[in-house]
Design the sequence.
């Protein structure tokens, strides 16, 4: 009686297995090579991002002093205290107000500069460098420049007011003007990076679209609204999300220029976290506020991405 041979023993089975073995070895080698390239980033990600994040969650559940041996588990008590703290809500309101004032201005100014400087000439190239240079400054340098400019005694703006017969305004000491002063400082300091992103987006738009629009006698406004802005949609979303995340973390401007005053009108969330953790040594409470700020930034970014995808 004849019996059916196994596939591996059938005629040609050994040849097929032998032919497949090098392919499997090559695939395994590619996987190991990819893992070797990814390993440095994975180690960095785990040690400096993932581990601190989860450790921060653990600390937020404790009465944890920065210096000392106090490590009492309190559960969600830090979060409960946070929501009952008037200073916390003041800092949240100031931070949201600052972001609401700064992000739209930053996007509009950066887009306007990119549109104006999107020319292939040496002059416009030099102007691009000038406008981007302010982004290279540290927050300390940028704020000190504007402290001198806004000084009511010797500042440039004070001299301009006096030359017009007006009384100088103490911008940084006025409850109504302090936050707008921080907004202007931040836009001047940080507008270079979003401007570069918009320039990169503009240079990806085919010139043929503009040529065809000119042949059809389309006005500059129509070319802007029908060609430029739709083509920059993804870049605009990117800039808005990055600016929301960045401005919700505002710290140095308020700390150096106003110290959070006057009357806590410019106290930011990050400043409150810093003072709670490193001045009052309440590291658990500061970690709880940090996680809340992270949740706010994450929710704002996801909402912006959701809206942009629905419009697509």
Sequence:
């Amino acid at each position: 009686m004849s019996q059916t041979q196994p596939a591996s023993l059938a005629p040609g089975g050994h040849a097929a297995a032998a032919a497949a073995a090098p392919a499997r070895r090559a695939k395994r080698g590619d996987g190991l090579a990819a893992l070797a390239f990814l390993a440095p980033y994975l180690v960095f990600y785990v040690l400096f991002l993932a581990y601190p994040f989860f450790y921060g969650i653990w600390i937020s559940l404790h009465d944890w002093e920065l210096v000392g041996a106090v490590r009492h588990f309190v559960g969600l008590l830090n979060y409960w205290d946070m929501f009952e703290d008037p200073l916390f809500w003041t800092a949240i309101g100031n931070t949201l107000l600052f972001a609401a004032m700064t992000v739209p201005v930053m996007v509009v100014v950066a887009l306007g500069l990119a549109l104006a400087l999107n020319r292939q000439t040496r002059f416009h190239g030099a102007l691009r460098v000038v406008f981007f240079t302010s982004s290279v400054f540290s927050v300390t340098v940028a704020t000190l420049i504007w402290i001198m400019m806004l000084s009511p005694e010797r500042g440039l703006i004070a001299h301009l007011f006096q030359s017009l017969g007006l009384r100088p305004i103490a911008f940084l000491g006025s409850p109504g003007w302090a936050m707008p002063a921080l907004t202007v400082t931040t836009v001047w300091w940080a507008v270079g990076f979003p401007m570069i992103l918009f320039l990169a987006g503009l240079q990806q738009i085919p010139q043929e679209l503009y040529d065809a629009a000119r042949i059809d006698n389309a006005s500059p406004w129509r070319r802007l609204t029908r060609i430029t802005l739709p083509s920059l949609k993804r870049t605009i979303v990117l800039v808005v999300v990055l600016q929301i995340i960045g401005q919700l973390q505002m710290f140095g401007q308020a700390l150096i220029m106003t110290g959070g005053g006057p009357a806590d009108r410019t106290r930011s969330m990050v400043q409150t976290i810093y003072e709670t953790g490193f001045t009052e040594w309440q590291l658990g409470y500061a970690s709880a506020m940090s996680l809340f700020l992270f949740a706010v930034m994450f929710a704002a970014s996801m909402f912006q991405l959701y809206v942009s995808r629905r419009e697509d």
